[in-house]
Design a protein that fits this description.
This protein is α/β, with parallel strands linked by helices. The protein has helices at 10-22, 33-42, 59-68, 84-93, 105-119, 152-163, 171-178, 187-201, 224-231; strands spanning 2-6, 26-30, 47-51, 75-80, 97-101, 126-129, 132-135, 140-143, 146-147, 168-169, 210-213, 217-220.
Length: 233
C-alpha cells in the first residue's frame, strides 16, 4: 500500500514515515502544502495523512484541491489537541477521519488500516476467502488455520490484490503501490512474488487464487471461495 504524508514539523514527519515504513507501507512525504498538493494530485494513493497547519498552502485547501480533481483515496487529517474547529473544517473539506497530535503510533496504525479497509468495502480486518484468511491488522496469512510464512513484499503484494479482489491489477500499479518512489523498479520481481504466493498458498493449483490476465496484469479471484467449498478445501 502506498501512502502520502504531508507534515511540516520534521520530527513528526519522521515519526510518521519511519513507523509507516516499518509497517510495510511505501511512503511519499512532503514538508509543505505546495509540495504536498503536487503529490496529492499527481499520484493515486491508498491513503494520505495531511496536517492542517502547513506553510504555503494549508491542509484544508490542499484537501479541497485534491478532491476537486477527483482524488477519492481516504484522507486522515492531523489536528492540534482541542481544536475542534479544525476537525470540523477538515471533515467538511473532504477528509475521512482525524488524529489529534500528539498521537500514539498504535492509534495511527489502527486508523490507517481502518480507512484503507473501508475504502475497499471491508469492515473487518480479517479478509476471508474460503480457506485463506488475511489478517490486515496482524499482517498474517493462514490457510486452513495454519499460518503461511510470507516475506513483507509477498504479503504486501497479496494484500493489495486481495483488497482489490476481482480487479485486474497491472504490474505498473503493483510496483507503484509497493515500492518507494526512488526504488529501482523491475516488473519481473512482481512475477517472482506472484509465483511464490501461488506456490505457498495454492501449491496444487486447486484454488486458482491469482490468475494472470494476459496484457492486463493479475487478478485475485474472489470466486475461488465457492470453488474451494465445492472441492471440500
Amino acid at each position: 500500500m502506498r501512502l502520502l504524508v504531508v507534515e511540516d514539523e520534521e520530527s513528526i514527519r519522521k515519526q510518521l514515515v519511519d513507523f509507516l515504513t516499518q509497517q510495510g507501507f511505501a511512503v511519499d512525504q512532503a514538508a509543505d502544502g505546495r509540495e504536498g498538493l503536487y503529490f496529492a494530485q499527481e499520484y493515486d494513493y491508498d491513503l494520505a495523512i495531511i496536517d492542517i497547519g502547513l506553510p504555503f498552502l494549508d491542509g484544508i485547501e490542499l484537501i479541497k484541491k485534491a478532491r476537486g480533481v477527483g482524488k477519492q483515496y481516504p484522507i486522515l487529517i492531523l489536528t492540534a489537541r482541542g481544536n475542534w474547529q479544525d476537525k470540523v473544517e477538515g471533515l467538511e473539506a473532504g477528509a475521512d477521519d482525524y488524529l489529534v497530535k500528539p498521537f500514539h503510533n498504535e492509534e495511527l496504525r489502527a486508523r490507517v488500516n481502518a480507512l484503507i479497509r473501508r475504502a475497499s468495502g471491508h469492515a473487518s480486518p480479517r479478509l476471508e476467502f474460503g480457506p485463506i484468511v488475511i489478517d490486515t491488522a496482524a499482517k498474517t496469512v493462514s490457510r486452513n488455520g495454519e499460518i503461511v510464512e510470507l516475506t513483507s513484499y509477498e504479503y504486501n503484494t497479496l494484500e493489495y490484490l486481495a483488497v482489490h479482489a476481482g480487479e485486474a491489477i497491472s504490474k505498473t500499479v503493483l510496483t507503484e503501490h509497493l515500492y518507494q518512489q526512488d526504488f529501482e523498479r523491475d516488473s519481473n520481481v512482481i512475477e517472482v512474488f506472484i509465483g511464490r504466493l501461488r506456490k505457498k498458498l495454492d501449491p496444487d493449483g486447486s484454488l486458482q487464487l491469482i490468475t494472470t490476465m494476459r496484457g492486463r496484469g493479475y487478478r485475485f479471484n474472489p470466486d475461488f471461495q465457492a470453488m474451494a467449498k465445492a472441492q471440500g478445501n
